Amino acid sequence: AGAVRARLGGSAEPPARCVCYGLGRFGGCPIARDQLAFLLLLLEELGVPPARCSLFDPVFSEQEAAVLGELGLRLLPENEEGKHDVEGSATLFFMVHCGNALYNNLLWRNWSLGALPKLVIIGNSFRGIEERLLPRILRRDYSYIAKVLKVTEEVALPTHPQYLDTFNDTSIHWFPLEKLQELSPEVWDFVEEPTYEDCDNLEIIRREDKAHGCSPITA
């Protein structure tokens, strides 16, 4: 948590709130429980009140939802599919081990010079996503990740031997305005909403999907 704070210390605007996607069934999954514990420590370290942290995972049980409420955290009322507008507030997105589509949707929803600099994402390494996918697949299915890659600042979360499975391939990402301004105007003109019609392995629970068992995001 201190490493995250140190990385964000030079930001013009530190995060004022937090959104967490895909935490999973922490009532029965030790990895999800460790991620929740880290999230709570991170909020404390960054000075973000729990009431300003919103969570969503369609697999949360009623008991887990009640526990999150007891911890002072808020549940988002509906499945946003990652399409959360920062609405002018610097926001930390805690999205460890989420599907690529969630990151892509988040970037699309905030695709502007005014909004992207207000995002900080703790989640799967964008560089790792680029390495694992063929360039044409990355551009076709996750075009917003592909377009922002070369101007993304990314630092790997420090590793710890006890939590290798919990935070493997996890990085801190942010998008400096001065770098975003280097992109061509055409990049900002295309803001079509992603559809993923040709995507074979989406790794996202849609609004219309029913959640059963373990979260595929966490798995």
UniProtKB/TrEMBL annotation:
List the signal peptide residues: none
Top-level lineage group: Eukaryota
What region holds the SRR1-like domain? 12-174
What start-end ranges are recorded for coiled-coil regions in this protein?
A: none
* Segments crossing the lipid bilayer: none
Name the Pfam families for this protein: SRR1 (PF07985)
Q: Name one GO cellular component term.
A: nucleus
In terms of InterPro entries, this protein maps to:
SRR1-like, SRR1L
> Which PANTHER family does the protein's record reference?
SRR1-LIKE PROTEIN (PTHR28626)
Q: Which family does it belong to?
A: Belongs to the SRR1 family.
What is this protein identified as? SRR1L protein
Q: Which organism is it from?
A: Indicator maculatus (spotted honeyguide)
What is this organism's lineage? Eukaryota, Metazoa, Chordata, Craniata, Vertebrata
